[in-house]
Every structure is written in C-alpha cells, then in structure tokens.
Amino acid sequence: MLADRIARKWDRRHGVDTAGSIQLGALNVVGPHRAMGNEAVCTSPRTFDFIMKSLPRDLHNHTFIDIGSGKSRTLLLASHYPFAEIIGVEFARELVDIARSNIERFRDPSQKCRALSVVEADAAAYDFPQVPLVVYFYNPFSKDVFDIVLMNLVSSLERHPRDCVIVYGSSSHRAIDWARPAIRETGIFRELAVLAMPGFLDAVRTIDYAVFQVQAAV
C-alpha cells in the first residue's frame, strides 16, 4: 500500500518506528478497558497539518494531549507546532516503550516544541493538567470509554476554567456520529467550522473530523 510505504519512508528519515496498524489483543495494557480499545493507527503528516489549519492560531500556551497515542507519531507531528508541552496517554505498555524510544531519537530542525512525554495510563483514569489544552482523539476507543474521558475533561474544566480545544477524528462515520453530539451535549463546547478532509496519499484512511472549543464561560 502506498500510504504504508510513505509512512515507513518518513520513519527511516527520522530514525523512528511509527508506521503500521497494531491490534491490541496481545499487548499488556493498564486498566479494565482492553476490549474497548481500537487498533492503533497513526495520523498521517498531511492529515495532521490539514487539521491544524482548523485550530485557533495562538496555541503557544496550550498543552497538546493525544489520547491513545500509540507509537507517538502524532506527538512528533505536533512538535512542529509551538505548543507549551506535548503529552501522549497510552494504555499499552509495548506502545509506550516504543513511543518513548521514538521521542528520544526524533530530531528535526523544524521542531518548535521539545517537551514531549508519554504517560502509561488508562485514559478513563487520566487527570488532565490544569493548563490550556488541545485534546486530540483519533477514534482510540468505544463510546463507553469516550464518555468517561469526556466527563472527566468537563469536570476538570469546571473546577479549573481554562481554554480547551477538542479534535475528534475517525475513519468510521459511526464514531464521529456519536462523538460529535456527545461533545455538544456537554453544554460547554462550541463546534468550529472546518474544511472537509481531502484524500491524502500518505493516509491509510481518509478521516472525518470535528473541532470544538470551550465557550468563554465554563
């Protein structure tokens, strides 16, 4: 597949291992939600850059959090933008180890953030940092787990009001169809206008996505 060849070429250029999709069944995971996790598939560089064009421009005070960060490619792509910090949350130990190794090896002159880390945790039990956030989901798990993570995020924002942007992407229209109303129904996010995602050659699948930003008063 062309997209896989492009991904492996990107990996070789940067000395990392992020390509391919990984089934979770044989991996060691933290927490009780193994059966609700989806296969680990990374966002392609062109897809990520396209999504970033839909986000508010001034995010230098924000921490980027990838929920279900897999082998860390999205974290590495995010490092080309001037975030204050970049954090991956991943419940599969083997993927955490690969991701941390990738972060150590990855060097690119165009990086604008080098404060990258990965937390080994079940996303449903993750405590969001009390700073402005960009929270990225690429269809990491089922609706049941997403609802828990979303409510934890909303509770954090209500306790400590601050800016927050949510990006939810999925190649499954069914997932985006339940994620979008769930975020709207929290009552604290407004959906931002975005452009339709083109089909990029470096993307294994074309994703549908939505972007939300917390409203001024939480």
Automatic annotation (TrEMBL):
InterPro entries registered for this protein in UniProt: SAM-dependent_MTases_sf
Domain of life from the UniProt record: Bacteria
Name of the protein in its database record: Mlr1181 protein
